[in-house]
Amino acid sequence: MPDRKGRYIDMVKKIFAIMLLAVLAGMPAFAAEMYDYNSAEFKDNASQFMCMCGCGQDHFECNMDGCGLNDSFKTEILEMMNDGMTQDEIKNHYTGMYGEVILTAPEKKGFSLTAWITPFAALGAAGAGVTLLVRRWVNKSRLNTDHFEDSEPKDKESELEEEILKAMVDEERKKYY
Amino acid sequence: MYIIGNLSIYLALILSVYAFASLFLGIKKQDQRLIDSGRGATLAIFILASISMLLMFILLGTSQFQFEYVYQYTSSDLPLLYKLSALWAGNAGSLLLWTFFLTMYAAMVGYSKKMVRNPMTPYIIAIMTLNTIFFYLILAFVTKPFMLLDGVPPEGRGLNPMLQDPGMILHPVAIYLGYVGLVVPFAFAIASLILKNMDSFWVKMTRRWTIIAWVFLTLGNVIGGYWAYTELGWGGYWAWDPVENASFMPWLTVTAYLHSVMIQERKNMLKIWNLSLIILSYALTLFGTFLVRSGVLTSVHAFGESNLGAYFLIFMAFMVILAMYVLMSRYHLIKKDTGQFESFLSKESSFLINNLILLGGTFAVFWGTVFPLVSEAVRGTKVTVGIPFFNTVMSPILLALLFIMAVCPLIAWQRSSMKNIRDNFLIPAIISLVIAGLLVFMGIRDAYPVIAWSIIAFMVLTHITEFIRGTSARRKVTKEPVPVAFYNLIIRSRRRYGGYIVHLGIAIMAVGIVGANFDLERLETMEIGDSVEIGGYTVTYENLAQRSEGVNDIVYANMRVERDGRDLGIMQPERMFYLNWEEPSTNVAVRSTLRDDLYIVLSAWEEDQRATFQFKVNPLVKWVWIGTYVLVIGAVFAVWKGRYGNVTPRYAGPQRKVY
Questions:
Q1: Would an 8 Å CB–CB cutoff place B639 in contact with chain A?
Q2: Across the interface, do A126 and B397 touch by the CB < 8 Å criterion?
Q3: Are residues B407 and B531 located together in one domain of the fold?
Q4: Which residue of chain B has the CA closest to A53?
Q5: Do both B59 and B137 map to the same domain?
Q6: Residue A161: enclosing H or E segment and its boundaries?
Q7: B104-112: long-range contacts (C-beta < 8 A, 24 or more apart)?
């Protein structure tokens, strides 16, 4: 039994060693993957930085004549990508150099987070306010109108027919007065 | 020319002050002669503004370079059309154009047949004249259009090539007509408050004015987008630039106003809200001008840094404080005789939600636009708020807006029931879900496009349902044949069905906007004979050539385009080099179909004729432009006079001795 167990452990070790070798052998091939200007990853990277030439575009889109920044910026990003830097590392590199202003949108942390949250918070608060207001109006209307309980909900079709009839009556009346 | 030009400005300023004083005293003393004199002065101001405009056109058209403005923005080789359109290329000229429109509108209101013997008229003209005074003060003392140089330069500096585009002839004019148009409902609203006339007269009288201003704002924005798409070469039409946002914000608030006034007209409710909306819209037009002219925010559209923005900010603050004071002082009167809100499930509620979303959108755009200033003020750190922010924040808001546009038409006024809503929405909802399934089946896996196109489909279907329901209701009453019933239905209710056509236009535009999720692009350096495959197109670089156009040189590439083996012809992306301008400009080659646009930009080239191109395939862009046509048709249909329902609102407010 121990022999069988020993053989089994040896076999596992061999398989592990082969797998490790395969992974190590594959590493250079993986690392050698080269990005170019048409890579989706390049677009993701370049489009997170604002071009400062005054074009109002990010570095992926900038096509401004005479922009002295864009070509070198793109080349630099591509080099960093091909050197194996991740998107976050590239981002940190440029924000460290230029500050947050280089990014096309505020970061989702710290004070900049308020840029993202405030519109929805305001919309939510306004929505709650409108709901309360309408509830108050509806309740007030119920109190003021005794016959409210009897009034039927309006049907869209009958509303349209009523309007058409009223318009026809108005037209006829105009002919004579 | 110099003397006449300046005289026309200074005289108009003096007359504006006189008109305001005369109207003010006329109202105070109830003296009709003073009122008539003030009214006459507004006509004289309009004539003087026309003279100023005519003079400036003559100076620009005849290249009178001794005038600083002509020297700054034109050159003798410029085509006549662009020489003339240079009038709105700089600060002084564009403000002159603005003033011209303002004086024209003031004269139109002052001499409107509908406002004859109406006591509101002197108040309205006085408020509009306050605006005129401000603009003439700027033209007379801050940015003077008729300034002479010391000598006569042999040649002008020329017009920025990016502005030498048909889009730039129309875009500023449309935007200004929209901006200035909003002064009219603002003046009516404030006049109504001053006179303590709390009914909906001002709303009804200014409906056409407001819709026309809104259409011009829409056109201005879309033409600007079209210009950016074809001229700037980045393949998009909306960049959420601060200046674009500045004209989008009043568009949103006026859209909200056009919906909420229906509640006021029908139920006599939301009076304060509507007054606030029109004050806000008017203030946002001034805020937009402040952004464009101050240089506080970085923008590709800015006129350059100047102190003009500060004057606009001061004037905006003055007018808003004045308007808010009048509004608050009449608050107790406005609150009287308010109608009743009977149910959560009603058209009124859906209009309120519509307003909430539109105002939420306005706030989001405003917040994103000013956040760089907020960040700098609070923590001293500069940030950029660009396209990713606005796309992320505005997408859910605009989707919610599309959804409410779909729901709103089929809900009854006052009180609807769940059963009615179920009956009205069941079929459109099922078809929309089927469309969503089909989109997923076709391989679209992104949630946003699937949700957006399904909501758009839902919106189109509910609107078609509304047309069908209306026609059948009319047939029930009149027994007319279907085409006759349909024609009579829409022709007798232009406002409603015109509005629905506008909605359909928005839906078509939205289809195109959502298409931007599937843009493809490639950057390729090619040798002659090389081909590129993108989005089903095969583009072959045939050769690089050069030609002259007047004094300018154009370098262009011939690109043969094929799709599915079919030859689609040659496309020519260009670079234009100007004799009188340092930077060349890009002329994009666009092949536009309903399915997609093939968009080619010539980026660079080498001596051996190798050239770098940017290729883009932008799906459904044409839908954005088609949707705009539909929107304009709908709006024109809604305001067209016609035979039916064309009743001039009757003034029933307080009477005065003067009118």
A1: no
A2: no
A3: no
A4: B300
A5: yes
A6: helix A156-176
A7: B104/B46, B104/B49, B105/B180, B105/B181, B105/B183, B105/B184, B106/B42, B106/B45, B106/B46, B106/B132, B107/B42, B107/B43, B107/B45, B107/B46, B109/B184, B109/B187, B110/B39, B110/B42, B110/B43, B111/B39, B111/B43
Specify the CATH number for the domain of residue A100: 1.10.8
- Tell me if chain A has a CB within 8 Å of the CB of B469: yes
Asked if the structure places residue B629 within a domain, the reply is yes
Q: Which of A63, A144, A160 sits opposite B469 (nearest CB)?
A: A160
Closest-CA residue in chain B for A136?
B341
User: Does one domain contain both B406 and B532?
Assistant: no
Candidates B343, B392, B647, partner chain A, best to mutate (most A CBs within 10 A):
B343
Q: Do B424 and A111 touch (CB under 8 A)?
A: no
- Averaged over successive runs of 10 residues, the pLDDT of chain B (659 residues) comes to 93 97 96 95 97 97 95 92 93 94 96 91 96 96 94 90 88 94 96 92 93 96 93 87 92 96 88 94 92 72 70 94 95 80 82 95 96 92 92 95 91 76 87 96 92 96 93 89 93 92 97 94 93 96 92 93 94 90 87 96 91 95 97 94 74 85
Does residue B87 fall inside a structural domain? yes
**A46/A83 same-domain check:** yes
Assess whether A56 and A79 both reside in one domain. yes
B241 in contact with chain A, both atoms CB, cutoff 8 A: yes
Instruction: Decide if B397 and A106 are in contact by the 8 Å CB cutoff.
Output: no
- Tokens of residue A155, six digits: 């049907």
- When CB atoms are compared, the residue of A58, A122, A156 closest to B410 is A156
Taking an 8 Å cut-off on Cβ atoms, the answer to whether A130 and B353 are in contact is: yes
Least confident of A49-53, A63-67, A75-79, B528-532: A63-67
> What is the overall mean pLDDT for chain B?
92
Cβ pair A102:B492 closer than 8 A: no
Domain that includes residue A23, residue range: 1-32
Assess whether A80 and A91 both reside in one domain.
Answer: yes
Same domain, B126 and B4: yes
Domain count, chain A: 3
Burial of B368 (0-12, 13-18, 19+ CB in 10 A): buried
Q: Establish if B417 touches chain A: CB-CB under 8 angstroms.
A: yes
**B491 and B555 inside one domain:** no
My answer on whether A28 and A48 are in the same domain is: no
How far is residue B425 from each of residues A153, B352, B437, measured CA to CA in Å? 17, 20, 18
pLDDT bin (cut points 50, 70, 90) of residue A28 is very low
Q: Domain count of chain B?
A: 3
Residues B498 and B547 in one domain: no
- Interface predicted TM-score (ipTM): 0.87
CB contact under 8 A, A104 and B417: no
Residue-range definition of the domain harbouring residue B591:
523-615
Whether A38 and A86 map to the same domain: the answer is yes
Residues of B in contact with A154 (CB under 8 A): 412-416, 420
Banded model confidence at residue A67, pLDDT cuts 50, 70, 90: low
Asked whether residue A85 falls in the same domain as residue A38, the answer is yes
Name the residue among B299, B367, B416 with its Cβ closest to that of A118.
Answer: B367
Which residue is associated with the tokens 């050197």? A83
